[in-house]
Fold:
Amino acid sequence: GSTPQTDVERLVGPVAHYIETPEHQSFDSYDEFAPKVLELIEAGKVDVVLPASGYASKILAVDIWRTGANVNILDLGSIFDVFKRPGTRAWIRNIETQINKRYGNN
Structure:
């Protein structure tokens, strides 16, 4: 994804293989990053894939499924948007507003 690896690891823990994708229009570079993911799977180096690249994540999940590989795929999508300021998703802004009302802006 486009979220820095350090931010990803804050949420999910250590990441053995991180492949960066563009922040916007990542599908345009799908043919550049998808083969890297598929190679890691084929080599048996990963058993969990956590894509967060918008529409490209859905295509990647289908391509992985078609290989028959025994891996888990969890599209984390906008979850990583929490690390971006200002909030890029309405649900993030709404939650932030509720937290600030309840606990203050500390």
Remarks:
- The radius of gyration is 16 Å.
